[in-house]
Fold this sequence. Notes:
Blueprint: E1 2-5, E2 7-9, H1 18-22, E3 33-36, E4 45-46, E5 49-50, H2 51-57, H3 59-63, E6 72-79, E7 86-87, H4 91-103, E8 123-127, E9 131-137, H5 140-149, H6 159-164, H7 168-178, H8 187-193, H9 201-213, H10 222-225, E10 226-231, E11 236-239, E12 245-257, E13 263-264, H11 274-280, E14 290-291, E15 294-295, E16 300-303, E17 311-317, E18 321-323, E19 330-343, E20 346-351, E21 355-358, E22 365-377
Antiparallel strand pairs: 1-4, 1-21, 2-3, 3-6, 4-5, 6-12, 7-13, 8-11, 8-12, 9-10, 9-12, 11-14, 15-16, 16-17, 17-22, 18-22, 19-20, 19-21, 19-22
Amino acid sequence: MNYILPALQRYDWGSYTFIQNFLNLEDAGTIAEAWYxxxxxxxxxxxxxxxxxxxAEDPEYWLGKKDGELPYLLKILAARESLSIQVHPxxxxxxxxxxxxxxxxxxxxxxxxxxxxxxxxxxxxxxxTQFHALCGIREYNxxxxxxxxxxxxxxxxxxxxxxxxxxxxxxxxxxxxxxSREPLTGLAxxxxxxxxxxxxxxxxxxxxxxxxxxxxxxxxxSPLFLNLICLRPNEAIFLEAGIVHAYLEGSGIxxxxxxDNVLRAGLSPKHIDxxxxxxxxxxxxYQAHIITGETxxxxxxxxxxxxxxxxxxxxxxSSRYTLSALPGARILLNLAGDCQITHxxxxxxLKKGEAVIIPSAQQDLYLEGxxxxxxxxxxx
Length: 380
């Protein structure tokens, strides 16, 4: 067992306080994410060395196999403002896209590059605070009603056809207009003047918040055609390939496959490839299932996902507890309280904000104390 120190990410949308307080950092500035991973872009530190290099020196010890990489990336995410609207490709799409862009000679660090590796990027968000997000396309009929209710139809040439026959083909035409990089004349002023009416008040409120941040981006309308959800602490959502989504505000634990393929769809100055986005996104209504976790012993809460790259669990520790064996490396992050972890004759103390990496070679673990811990692991 070893302590693992996170790599901090300082994006503009990050929080001024959440991660700073959690990690007991002073004068740290804006921090958006804390990464616990071996991702080569920004690896964590183990014994003062980059974790990806530590694994490469002895993959059998850490991963339980002769070669490979840690298949997941665990994060603390703290969003003061919204992140970009985005979609992640499937593994098959990522492999094809990566090979295609390599053949085209597009450098890996080029701003117009869509695929930076051959991996997919399914992810799960576990809320630590109230957490607001957009996830999946609304029912087409509801989108038509909302746009009509707020008198938005005149801004889009394709809206009349969509309202008459709301379907996937006509929504794609409408979405293509929204994705235009040129701001629609008068749209921002129209949204700003709208009063919060009886229906869809929360959605309009979020449109107005986004308008202040992105006054020239048509994607400020996203809360009107994507599902607006609010997670309570310890609730989670899983995001599979092709689902249009955006995190709006709040803090949580995010875990994902260790990939870096993001197709953006607005609320960002970065590259947007409209044609590739429309090919990859799931152009059909989708309602995210809120996951509350499953437990067999009343202490370890598992959040099931349909992928093998990662699994996430929450442990409410109040007495001695035995962690059963799992394949691969595990990360334990202490969210609250104090505890100690023992393997044979080795014991590590874990305070709030500290994390430990447990190699595949160490399986029989005993925990004692009063704490709340999140555990990341994998089926690979």
